[in-house]
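Sequence, structure tokens reproduced for absentees:
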Amino acid sequence: MAQFGLLYVGEPQFASQEEQQAHFAKYMQWMESINDVVVQPAMRPMGPPIRVTSEGASSAARADRLTGMTVIEADDIDAAVAIAKTSPYIEVAALDVVEMIQMQM
């Protein structure tokens, strides 16, 4: 099986602490439901990034920033996307699905 990253994009906004806690409980139930394909559970939250380029470094806020990642195993990208579509995270933000390419070193 191949490995895929489910990349958490954006920062969900909740109307209340109770709403956030309810969403988190739903998310944890989802993580339990996909436990058999999880290689690395949610690596989140991630703090604000500093973007480094050949021009320098910037900590300018970006709405589409990476805020976390989960690594799963699936037969192919379509199967990984199907798993991502079941995530409650997509109710409040976005997930990018990427294949984790094995580098030969």
Observations:
- Helices lie at 17-33, 77-84.
- Strands lie at 2-9, 38-43, 51-53, 56-58, 66-74, 94-99.
